[in-house]
Input
Amino acid sequence: MADPRISHIELDEATIIWRNADIEQERRIAIFDLIEENTFKPLRAFEAGHTGPYRLRLSVEDGRLALAISSDDGAGDGQLLETIVLGLGRFRRPIKDYFAICDSYYQAIRRATAQEIETIDMARRGVHNGAAEMLLERFEGKIETDFATARRLFTLICVLHIRG
Output
């Protein structure tokens, strides 16, 4: 029976140089939510008979996002099915904007009014949603997924770009 979803996700820890408590919390929530509910169907692997679930490892190499997709055999040592590499040039601006707005949001939580926090959060969601749409476009013909999964993956892509 087909089970096109991510069952395990790993970030290349060597890529992540630094993260604060707020970013670490974002990472934990994104991974938890992603594993709890997602749609993820790598088309080549699926058509070759690997119908899921999948293990996913995200890394950034030479300015490109690498999505290493493996089968999930339940023991944690599934077969590498394919690695999809995406240029990140189009994501530089949304990543930068997302970090800036998250920083404003975390500062606002500590000292701003509820209305100011809500305004910043709306802007943050707007940047996040736009980047998720862009990610869906980049996945076209490679991976079928839903909007919520793309949003969570964008959060994790941002975590990989933290430079301190």
